[in-house]
Design goal:
Blueprint (H helix, E strand, L loop, with lengths): L1 H7 L10 H11 L2 H17 L6 H25 L1 H4 L17 H22 L2 H22 L6 H5 L1 H4 L12
Length: about 180
């Protein structure tokens, strides 16, 4: 299988892959369907929150929420690659199918998580960046690592990560 050979090369050289499929594999790591729900919640929160936020800052905040959510989803896929390989529904995901190396997926996720938190902190405020970091950590540590393999209630409890506010209006008028 050519995909498995990509991960098992000992000479350090990767097999040549079509760039479009490689990009789509990294996009799939972000769990776009889950990301859409989190972005929708964040956008509604921005819309109904008191005060005003410059439209460009609102767009950047939504982008940070999307990227942070995607990063958490990528860590989730990295952590669960062993189980995903065993299930029919998830066996064709990029990691269990061998299309993306696990170290590449984890590095991608960590860089995106850090960038989203830093950008959120710099463009809105530190509280919003901190809340985004907390939501990412909650999804990764509480939902993925602690709950998911231990209880069927993981989805109910883990849903709290999507409920964390990503924008705090305190101090927004000071910018």
């Amino acid at each position: 299988m050519a995909d498995a050979a990509y991960l098992n090369r000992t000479d350090g050289a990767a097999l040549v892959e079509a760039p479009a499929s490689r990009v789509s594999d990294f996009v799939a790591l972000l769990k776009p369907r889950v990301m859409t729900l989190v972005v929708f919640s964040g956008a509604v929160g921005l819309f109904v929150a008191p005060g005003t936020l410059h439209p460009l800052l609102a767009i950047v905040a939504i982008l940070c929420i999307a990227v942070g959510s995607g990063a958490a989803g990528a860590v989730n896929m990295w952590y669960e690659r062993d189980i995903d390989a065993l299930m029919t529904r998830t066996s064709n995901r990029p990691l269990p199918a061998g299309r993306v190396a696990s170290s590449d997926a984890l590095g991608f996720a960590v860089v995106l998580a850090l960038l989203s938190v830093v950008l959120m902190s710099l463009t809105t405020n530190l509280v919003a960046g901190g809340l985004l970091a907390l939501a990412i950590l909650f999804y990764v540590l509480v939902y993925t690592v602690w709950l998911k393999r231990r209880t069927p209630q993981n989805i109910v409890i883990g849903g709290a990560a999507g409920a964390f506010p990503a924008d705090d209006r305190v101090g927004v008028g000071d910018r």
